[in-house]
Amino acid sequence: MRINSIHLKNFRNYEEALIAPCEGVTVLAGDNAQGKTNVLEAVYLCCTGRSHRTSHDREMIRMGEDAFYVKVTGRRKDGLHDVEFALTQAGGRRVKVNGSQVKRSGEMLGHITGVLFAPEDLRMIKDGPGMRRRFIDMELSQLRPDYYYNLQRYNRALKQRNTLLRDCSASGASPDTLDLWDNELAVSGAAIQTARHAFVKRLAETASHVHESVSGGKERLKVEYEPDVACGEDEAETQNNLMEAFSQRRAADIKRLTTTSGPHRDDLGVFIDGMDARAYGSQGQVRTCALSLKLSEIELMELQTGEAPVLMLDDVMSELDPERRRLLISRLEGVQTFVTCTDENDLAGAKIGKLLRVKNACILPEENP
Ligand SMILES: Nc1ncnc2c1ncn2[C@@H]1O[C@H](COP(=O)(O)OP(=O)(O)OP(=O)(O)O)[C@@H](O)[C@H]1O
Ligand SMILES: [Mg+2]
Which of 8, 12, 312 has the most ligand 1 atoms within 8 A of CB, as the residue to mutate? Predict the structure, then answer.
């Protein structure tokens, strides 16, 4: 897919900006804290319905303003798609797709598809399982609104169940209503696990061949879904497994005031030549793995939708050694890419289509790259 325009109003430090990227690599260059990442954040918001760096949507409203507005227009094989996202200080969200207001937020997904690669992703292998779950969730949510809804449903139920556990402990009341939440968690949780299982199976295949090329044939990468509660033969059996786990762990949950089992504790196992990279990988190895996983994400999205998503590289070039940088650049062909950087020397070797300078929330006129 290809993004034609990005329009921001009172978004982060921007009063107003209109950006027309090129088909290939558009570079956003500038000093620190000028507004480069903010542009990518706005695009990501229109892809996923959330920011990649805050769960407090209001932080994105320009200080002193009442609301922000973002519109991203893009072309897919089947025609033009645009997503508009507006948020007020009161917390009201208004999302439009192709000019029509959507009733459920999941309806905005899949129109503008994107993969964001930021320095923290390079730490995905060593950081806690939360980052690895997020990697899976973000890809699946963009491709499957039902997954997004189940995740919402699960997280809401989890919050309710944990509140109940704390309330029961405070009041000494019997936690009868926990049954209700156990059931809700098992139904949505089993759907989540089924989708994750299938996704990681596809990811494993793609990541293995991508990694072979990224590591120059030196390493074998294996990724595996590691559910906290075992998956069954089918979704119904997974649901039963979850119900059983919740009931078995109930006493422990009441004691610890939190739900200690379920898909919110799943992980993605990452192994290099049979060694657990999460525990034993060297810094270089885990970075290469993260790069392979991100590149696989693009490939899988392309396989699923028939066209490549846009790629957003936020400051990653400076974090990669020249060899990996070269590898990444070699894979940008045919993928519309946004790259932010403070030093253009980090992009040596890349075919830059458009170079935009970002200065104090202004996008300066195009320079010849
Ligand atoms: N809600 C907001 N209202 C006004 N300004 C904001 C808001 N949120 C962030 N900013 C400003 O945006 C700037 C940061 O923008 P951004 O993260 O895009 O920087 P950057 O160009 O990517 O910098 P770096 O190179 O350090 O990553 C900061 O100056 C910050 O104060
Ligand atoms: Mg930045």
Answer: 12
